[in-house]
Amino acid sequence: MKKNILSAFCLLLLAFCSNAQERGKVEVVKDPRIDTLIAKRTSLKVSSTVALSSNGYRVQIFSGPGRSDAYTAQARLQAKYPGMRTYLSYTVPNFKVKAGDFRTRLEAEKFKQELQPSFSGLFIIPEKINIPKAENIQ
């Protein structure tokens, strides 16, 4: 009986050792065109005319049915902040004017506080923003 158990144990140990895997080796199988694409990607430079986008915030300074009122609000903001980008959109029945490309809500909130005396009904809107060109350079 002991002999059978000992031989069964030896057979089990032998089977376990023969199926053991080699540790520390990883074989990566990939298409050789991937290396070509990676090389091309690193050689390309981001053009300064390309506007990259990201999630961020804008401050809505106007919402109403009057087109001329929207243009007036946009002109007032651009007169006070000439470098600030503004965005005019129309969704039936209202025109909306939004300003800025803020990465964080805190930046948008600070700008909203600056605008508070000049504009009423300000809102912070989360949406896709254009990354400023100075940040596009890599």
Task: Describe the structure concisely.
The chain is α+β, with helices and mostly antiparallel strands and 138 residues long.
Describe the structure.
This protein is an alpha+beta fold. The chain has a domain at 53-131: Alpha-Beta Plaits (2-Layer Sandwich). Helices cover 41% and strands 25% of the residues. The protein has a four-stranded antiparallel sheet, covered by helices on one side. β2 and β3 (94-102) form a beta hairpin. 14% of the residues are buried. The mean pLDDT is 81.
Query: How far is the N terminus from the C terminus?
Result: 75 Å
Number of alpha- plus pi-helical segments? 5
Strand order of the largest sheet: 2-3-1-4
Helix % is 40-55%
How many beta strands in the DSSP annotation? 4
Which structural category do the helix and sheet elements fall into? alpha+beta
Taken as a percent bin, the fraction of beta residues is 25-35%
In terms of topology, how is this protein built?
Layout: H1 2-18, H2 33-43, E1 53-64, H3 67-80, E2 86-91, E3 94-102, H4 105-115, E4 123-130, H5 133-136
Antiparallel strand pairs: 1-3, 1-4, 2-3
Descriptive keywords:
alpha+beta; Alpha-Beta Plaits; 4 strands
